[in-house]
Amino acid sequence: MESSEVKPYQNEEGSKKEQVAKMFNNIAPKYDLLNHTLSMGIDILWRKKAVKILKKLQPKKVLDIACGTGDFAIEDLKSGATEVIGLDISKGMVDVGIGKVNKKGLADKVSLRVGDSENIPFEENSFDGITVGFGVRNFENLEKGLSEMHRVLNPEGQLIVLEFSKPKHFPIKQLYFFYFKFILPKIGRLVSKDQTAYTYLPDSVNAFPDGEKFTDILEKVGFKSTKIIPCSFGIASIYIGTK
C-alpha cells in the first residue's frame, strides 16, 4: 500500500489531506507531551542534528513545512536564519505553536501560519533552506509537495527532511516494530483520546517509501546531491537535497 493511500480515518469520508488536518486538530493540545514522551525525547536530538547540517549553508530565510507546534521552526533559528516561516495544514497545531513562539518572545523572527504544503503560497526562489520534520509521509501527493518545495527554494538552497524510517537490523528492527505496533497506539489513545491517530502513525511509517526510494523521488522532482543520514540505528533518517 502506498503512503498516499493510508488515511487516519479509513472508514470515514474525506481526502487524506482533510483527514490529516482533522486528526492533528484533535490531538494538538496533547501533541507535544505525547511526542516527546513516546520518542523519549530523542526527536529533540534529531532536530538539533538536522539544523546543524542546515547551519553550514548559513541561510537567512528558512521555511518549515508541516511545522506543527513549531519546535523545528524555533530550532531553525540556530542555523543562523533571521526569518523562519512555518506552514501547517492544521489550525489546531499552528495555534499551539503560535502560543509557544510568543511565550519565547520570538514572534519577530518566527511566523507560523495555516497553509497547504502541496500548494505553498510563496514565489519561487524565496527561501535559502527548507526543513520538514515528520511531515512528508502525511502528504496526499508526495511528489507534488516535494516539487513545490523545490520551486520555492533559491538556487543551491537546501531541503532537509527528518522522517521515521524502518530499521533493518536485529534487535532494533524487532523492538521498534513491537513498540510502534503495540505500545505506542495504546499510550496515544489513552492520552490524546483520539482512537486513530497513533494507529495511523505506524501504518503511515510502514507505507512510506524510505531510504533510497525517497531520494529517488527527490531526484525525480529536481533535487541534486541527495544524501541519507540514518539516526538512532535507522529509527529515523535525515534526507538532504540541494536545488
What does this protein look like?
The protein has 243 residues and is α/β, with parallel strands linked by helices. It has one domain (3-242): Vaccinia Virus protein VP39 (Rossmann fold, 3-Layer(aba) Sandwich). The chain contains eight helices and seven strands. A seven-stranded mixed β-sheet has the order 3-2-1-4-5-7-6, sandwiched between helices. It is globular and about 45 Å long.
Number of strands: 7
Main beta sheet: strand number and arrangement?
Answer: 7 strands, mixed
Q: How many helical elements?
A: 8
Beta-strand share of residues: 15-25%
Text of the CATH class: Alpha Beta
Order of helices and strands: HHEHEHEEHEHHHEE
Gap from first CA to last CA: 30 Å
Helix percentage: 40-55%
Q: How large is the radius of gyration? A: 17 Å
Low-confidence stretches: none
Q: Which overall shape is indicated by the principal axes computed on the Cα atoms?
A: globular
The total domain count is 1
Strand order in the largest sheet:
3-2-1-4-5-7-6
Tell me the name of the CATH homologous superfamily: Vaccinia Virus protein VP39
State the secondary-structure class: alpha/beta
